[in-house]
Amino acid sequence: MQTTTSPKHHHHPCTFIQPQLLHHISTSPSAPSQARAAATHTLTLTHEIHHTRASPSTTPILTLQLTPHPLTLAIHDCHHNRTLPGVLIHTTTTTSSSPSTTHHPTTNTLYTNLTITLHFLSSILGRKSIDNDNLHLTACLHYDNHLCNAFWTGREIIFGDGDGIYFSSFPENLDVVAHELMHGVTEYTAGLLYEGESGALSESISDVFACVITQWHLNQTVNEADWVVGRGIWAGYKGKEGGGGGGVALRSLKSPGTAYNDPVLGRDSQPDHMSGFVCTEEDNGGVHVNSGIPNRAFYCAAVGFGGWVWEKAAVVWYRTLLDPRVEPNCGFVRFACVTVDVAEGLFGAWAGGVVRRALMEVGVEVRDLVWTLEGF
């Protein structure tokens, strides 16, 4: 006998690079023509992927056996075309005793980044793959030519190689891999809709756990960490001198709005407070922009707890993601209220106070919880 499980809602593919950044490069007269063309192409292809990979499937996304089954990782090479998933070049299971390395350096680095992320999920959060039942994971390398992005489509993770001018190889960056895998976790837990505040929360959760996983891998305390996402993604581009020219990273949890500032790349436009919330129809309602607000809230909570971020702050955010009160259309206030309640339940009233103060720091009102949650 078999049963099937699926995400909570029709999936919208999630991306790592925000469209505003790509648009700025594509229209910058200072950018090389190759980079402008790559950015324009990536924007067009992103739109196509959002429509084609978001189409409902006639088969279950996952078939669950009643007997335990191992987690399988499969890495495919698209050879710079758009046929998915591409040619299988590496596969392994959690029970495999075969070597986990290949003659392909990018494949080896991606495999390492995937296993780091999955080991964190298992050992720290007690989660078996993204669905908590050892979902088979498919990763696709070298998708199309000069693609400047990475995607979680609901079926696989797609990685571009970057343009070699502004963006380097996406699968070789741990932040990118962790970010996209966490979109899968969100899909199989709260199922947050990828639009407006719920979409910004989805982006924030992926940014948050990309930071957490990197800190865990490097054994950094909250005071030792750099609190940025996407460091190393810029392909060595230095930009102008001063003012963050060329970019420190893609996003900053500590100081949203400061990750990059450059004539070609544009300026990091993330707000760090509700007073700067951006109302827009672009980017599914500004999901990559307004995520700066919950990102900053998490940073403030983590610093408030101190020590290692995976001991308390990350556990609170993960348990909040599992809480049935966090529904697919969840907004900032609802998520904030549940987070405070979860923190108190896990670690006591003092922990709820830490989270409450962090949320106040970014202007998110924490109301008294009402079980019906009317008015949220």
UniProtKB/TrEMBL annotation:
Record bears the keyword Metal-binding: yes
SUPFAM superfamilies recorded: Metalloproteases ('zincins'), catalytic domain
Pfam families to which the protein is assigned, alphabetical: Peptidase_M4, Peptidase_M4_C
Coiled-coil boundaries: none
Domain Peptidase M4 C-terminal: 190-364
Domain of life, per lineage: Eukaryota
Cited InterPro entries: Metalloprotease_M4, Peptidase_M4, Peptidase_M4/M1_CTD_sf, Peptidase_M4_C_domain, Peptidase_M4_domain
Entry keyword annotation includes Ion transport: no
Molecular-function GO terms, alphabetical: metal ion binding; metalloendopeptidase activity
Residue intervals passing through the bilayer: none
GO biological process annotation, one example: proteolysis
Residue span, Peptidase M4 domain: 84-187
Keyword vocabulary terms for this entry: Hydrolase, Metal-binding, Metalloprotease, Protease, Zinc
Family per similarity comment: Belongs to the peptidase M4 family.
Name of the protein in its database record: Zincin
Native species: Aspergillus sclerotiicarbonarius (strain CBS 121057 / IBT 28362)
